[in-house]
Design a protein that fits this description.
There is one protein chain. With about 375 residues, the chain is of the alpha/beta class. It folds into 2 domains: about 1-125 and about 305-330, Rossmann fold (3-Layer(aba) Sandwich), CATH 3.40.50.720; about 130-300 and about 335-365, Dihydrodipicolinate Reductase, domain 2 (2-Layer Sandwich). It has 15 helices and 16 strands. Strand 10 (about 195) and strand 11 (about 205-210) form a beta hairpin. Helix 8 (about 130-140) runs parallel beside helix 10 (about 215-225), helix 11 packs antiparallel against helix 12 and helix 13 crosses helix 15 (about 330-340).
Length: about 375
Amino acid sequence: MIGVVGGYGDVGAVAAHHLAGLGLGQLRIGGRDIAAAARLAESLSGAEAAQVDAGDEAELDRFAANCRIVLNCAGPGRTIGDRVARAARRAGADYVDVGGDEALAARLDPTALRREGRVAVLSAGVQPGLTGLLPRWAARRGWSRIDGLTSYFGLRDVFTTVAAMDYLQAVTEGAGRSGLVWRNGCHPATTVWQRNAVVPLFPTPSTSLAYLTPEAERLARWLRLERGTWYSVLCGPRITGALAQAPGLAPEAGARLLREASQFDLSGQPRFVLHLLQLDGLCQGRQATRTTVLRGSGNAALTGVMAALTVAAVARDAVPPGSHFAAEILDPDATIDRLVLSGAVDFLTETDGPISALADCEECTL
């Protein structure tokens, strides 16, 4: 049995459908709205529905009972904390979290998990998650040394209420450092803004902000980078302003502002997730600069499939006991290949040269 908490939400429904297609076992779709859970379960062969409030320990225990794996797609993450993870452990189940960051990792006991033969995989979504996995995939393609990394990540999609609340909590609690870049093994206080910038393949105008996340710091150390810059690209006039205003509002008002702004910017436009990744260093015996372009069909689609593939890796015993971040434990080649096959990634290519040269890449155009 695989239980999906928040299984009928935007991300959870995608994950559930993909898991059903993988044939890993019976699914239990859970959430506070039992009618919504039942509707989704009816569309999935053999699935069952269960009412569960992620804030209610007794309901979580009933939900996790008899589950081999519990996937958490509910939020906001900082509100739920480790409640779902603890319920999974009490039930003797493995645990996968679409979100789950350093705060949650600090509350888990990897030694106890290893002793019990149990697995917990966090950040099994897009950012963090795929944004840490794609560089590992690219780094395996002939590189003997990587000196520099430049990343641009952005999307155009609707901010769900849960996603907006998670974003605001992360900003408020400092999960990442705005304006910082990686230089010579550390992160100097260098503010890097590119307002109204023209970033190849992204809509114009856009605003790019250097943003150093814990995931990026771990990646920089793993690659032994001399320099690294990660940009968040804000696409759309309304969302750019809303992202600046929302942290100063009450959480509910801020989340509503982000959702309404994202809906306005999306109106009549296609959804996309776009990651541009440039590596500089020694590749196949020579100095080289190469750029990877990954485009997804939408945030929920990409996040849901990424979560399902993480569950599949756990179910197939491809993840050792303990606590892990998805980007650091999943097989990069197998995971990226399966994301492409699923259709959640609708374009993936590598080119010689820097990101700036993508302006002349006709096949890369959105």
